[in-house]
User: Fold GTP:AMP phosphotransferase AK3, mitochondrial from Dissostichus eleginoides.
Amino acid sequence: MAKLFRAAIMGPPGSGKGTICKRIAQSFDLQYLSSGHYLRESIAANTEAGVLVRSYVERSMMVPDHVMTRLMLPRLEQLIGQSWLLDGFPRTLSQARALNSLCQLDLVISLNIPYETLRERLSNRWVHAASGRVYNMGFNPPRVKGKDDVTGEALIQHDDDKPEALLSRLRYYKDVAKPVMDLYKSQGILHAVSGTDTDRIWPYINSLLSAKMHIQPSGAFQTQTPP
Ligand code: G5P
Ligand code: MG
Assistant:
């Protein structure tokens, strides 16, 4: 049986975690778990927990650690014999410690994207509120301007993606992420990747995963190494 492989991807809002995770999951056949996706699912279910979660996510504030670990850890426990990839969890030291008590990660990728790039991307970001599907007017526009590809419903823009709100979100992200990165650095599993374009950093991540997993990617997203 192939060795299990567990990885997580960290990065500020808009850094491309979701875009890159989808490529990794497709190329390397890993189960993909996104904290944002499960939060939106719980909001849609409109349970007591979902109502609480909504009050944080709508303001782009961090959901409390105990809510996050209760949401994520049981799902990981169910994947006990499988390889997986986490998008957006853990985000705090407390979440990282809770995850560590369940299993040891093999690789953590941290996306280091310049502020100007994030600002530009998020100001072009439109979302379908009900599903959380994300579009970018330049990079992956919807088929019909202003409409969700699946439902045809109107897309919206978050107030939190405006420049002033974004700057404070990014500062907060840095403060909270630093001890998490220090922990993974001390375990020798942190790989930081810098760049402005997902398509240009993807070949590096592709090679890194191939080397770590000792396999050839199956490859929908194999691209050329940038010059
Ligand atoms: P999420 O859903 O994890 P965020 O804010 O961390 O939300 P987000 O917005 O999902 O992160 P991303 O996944 O890092 O961003 O990036 P993405 O969606 O792939 O890309 C961003 C945009 O840029 C998209 O429009 C994409 O098409 C475009 N893009 C990508 N690459 C390029 C490129 O090369 N060029 C260009 N031009 N565009 C590109 O979490 C949501 C909320 O849930 C809570 C928080 O409230 C959070 O705000 N939450 C947690 N709270 C506590 N602890 C946790 N662990 C939590 N996890 C989630
Ligand atoms: Mg995302």
Q: What stands out?
A: Residues 146 and 155 are 5 Å apart (CA to CA). The pocket of magnesium ion (ligand 2) is lined by residues 17-18, 36 (CB under 6 Å). The helical segments are 17-28, 35-45, 48-57, 65-78, 93-102, 115-123, 163-186, 198-213.
